[in-house]
Amino acid sequence: MDAVGAAFAAWPREGFLPRRERRRASYDGPLPIGHEQTNSQPRTVSAMLRLLDVRPGQRVLDVGSGSGWTTALLAHLVGRSGLVDGVELEPSLVEFGAANLAATGQPWAGIRAATPGVLGLPDRAPYDRILVSAEPRRLPEELVDQLGDGGRMVIPVAGVMLLVMRKDGETTVTEHGYYRFVPLR
Ligand SMILES: C[S@@+](CC[C@H](N)C(=O)[O-])C[C@H]1O[C@@H](n2cnc3c(N)ncnc32)[C@H](O)[C@@H]1O
Fold first, then answer.
1. What does the alpha-carbon distance between residue 31 and residue 21 come to, in Å, rounded to a whole number?
2. Is the pTM of this model over 0.70?
3. 50-86, pLDDT tens digit by residue?
4. Does the active-site annotation cover 40?
């Protein structure tokens, strides 16, 4: 089993769903978590995490932490020498995600409320990895700027999954298939 598979095994989706949705945890599709938002499709999360290529000890930003599931999976991938900052715009999901994450006992990861009009956490950048689970229409430069040298970001933009890599001041963008996400607001 690879690192992503081990993270999925350690933190099953069920613990990140509202009680009424838990019996559907094995369904390979998005599930509602309230406020018209979703816990993402497991196959999509797994593809995104493999593209992100997270290593132990890294600093990771999780934009759109929602249920807290991706934050918990990322925390497992970086391990206790790493750090994960989840950021979420919907206040009640900040609470829901933070409670679900706390139950995993990984205090090197946390969830913060997004400041409306500010993307990501520019004051805590740079990050080695950025995962974005909501879709903008254009690649946001503000998030590219939060990537450190050698950093990678995985983000769905206008229906296409992008891998953004930053090295020596150069930004490279590659495309990795078609996906649908809730909008990045
Ligand atoms: C597909 S959902 C949640 C996926 C989440 N990673 C999970 O594991 O449950 C995407 C989330 O992005 C949030 N969101 C949208 N725009 C945002 C922004 N600008 N900053 C932070 N979160 C945002 C939504 O409120 C929603 O909870």
1. 7
2. yes
3. 999 999 999 999 999 999 999 999 999 999 999 999 9
4. yes
Distance of alpha carbon 60 from the chain centroid: 9
- The alpha carbon dihedral of 67, 84, 183, 116 has a sign of positive
Specify the residue with its C-alpha closest to ligand 1, atom 3.
Answer: 66
Short-list 23, 135, 130, CA closest to 70:
130
Strands, sheet with 160-167, edge to edge from the N-terminal-most edge strand: 109-113, 83-88, 59-63, 127-132, 147-157, 160-167, 170-178
Q: Is the CB of 88 under 6 A from ligand 1?
A: yes
d(CA 167, ligand 1 centre) in Å: 27
Q: What is the pLDDT of residue 139?
A: 98
Give the C-alpha separation, 122 to 32, whole Å: 29
Q: What is the separation of C-alpha 41 from the centre of its chain, rounded to a whole number of angstroms?
A: 13
CB atoms within 10 A of CB 114: 20
pLDDT tens readout for residues 141-169: 999 999 999 999 999 999 999 999 999 99
Paired sense of beta strands 170-178 and 147-157, if any = unpaired
Strand partners, 34: 37
Give 65 Cα–ligand 1 centroid separation in angstroms.
Answer: 5
